[in-house]
Design goal:
single chain; about 250 residues; alpha/beta; Rossmann fold; seven-stranded parallel β-sheet; three-stranded antiparallel β-sheet; 6 helices
Length: about 250
């Protein structure tokens, strides 16, 4: 893995970018805007997958403040990595948080926002989202979409999106989406599957906090055990993977 603090990055292997916590959002915003402008320039369209959680909140606020009138929003389509099974106005809704902090603040057409229907039956919601993705990308049977950028986080237990340790979704090879019951949360979650995530042009992980340092070390430097550390699934990504982590989260890395 390349450890990067400046200059040009090599796309051939995962990049580790270590920054001060206050610079995390700024670095992530630079990557997001760069990916958006490149995609729109190359093909007239930018597809991004966003995640919930506490770490990317400052990123969404920064994008809304600094890039609210950017031209690329008109050609951007937003999808979501996962969702809780709640209505969109529920405080726990990933869509609700991102809509409030970012999507309602920028010049993006409403029809370009593709949300999970967390308020309906989980299995139905998963199927409808898979159908929406398949229709948008005009996928053939067994074909996977290629998102331009997927933004992910990592939990203290090593989960990413809503793929938790020992989940049967880790072995999913063909479906686009899944409704999965998480025993530790006693609730269902909706999530994109590993083959969708690993097919992206670019993945950006945002990781912050000393409490995640041990897990991050195991994910990046330990043996490959995706059943226990689902974030390791992204070691098989076909495109570029960048880990943007703060100094506290990186404190145990060699």
């Amino acid at each position: 893995m390349n450890i990067h603090a400046g200059g040009t990055m090599n796309d051939s292997e995962p990049q580790l970018v270590v920054v001060e916590k206050a610079k995390l959002a700024e670095r992530a915003a630079d990557i997001f805007v760069g990916a958006a402008n490149t995609a729109v320039s190359e093909k007239g369209l930018f597809t991004a997958v966003l995640s919930g959680g506490s770490t990317p909140r400052s990123l969404y606020q920064l994008l809304a403040k600094r890039y609210s009138r950017a031209q690329f929003w008109q050609s951007t389509h937003i999808f979501f990595a996962d969702e809780r099974c709640v209505p969109p106005n529920d405080p726990e809704s990933n869509y609700g948080m991102i809509a409030s902090l970012l999507l309602s603040q920028v010049n993006i057409p409403e029809e370009n926002i593709h949300r999970w229907k967390g308020e309906i039956d989980p299995n139905t919601a998963a199927k409808e989202y898979a159908d929406e993705i398949s229709s948008f990308f005009a996928l053939k049977p067994q074909e996977m979409p290629v998102f331009d950028l997927i933004l992910l986080g990592m939990g203290k237990d090593g989960h990413t999106a809503s793929i938790f340790p020992r989940s049967n979704i880790i072995c999913e090879m063909s479906g686009l989406t899944a409704a999965t019951f998480v025993p530790s949360l006693n609730s269902y979650r909706l999530t994109l599957t590993p083959p969708v995530l690993t097919n992206a042009r670019q993945i950006v992980f945002l990781v912050s906090g000393e409490e995640k340092a041990e897990t991050l070390k195991r994910v990046l430097e330990g043996p490959y055990q995706p059943c226990h550390l689902p974030a390791q699934i992204l070691k098989t990504v076909k495109g570029r993977v960048t880990w943007v982590v703060d100094i506290d989260a990186a404190s145990l890395l060699s």
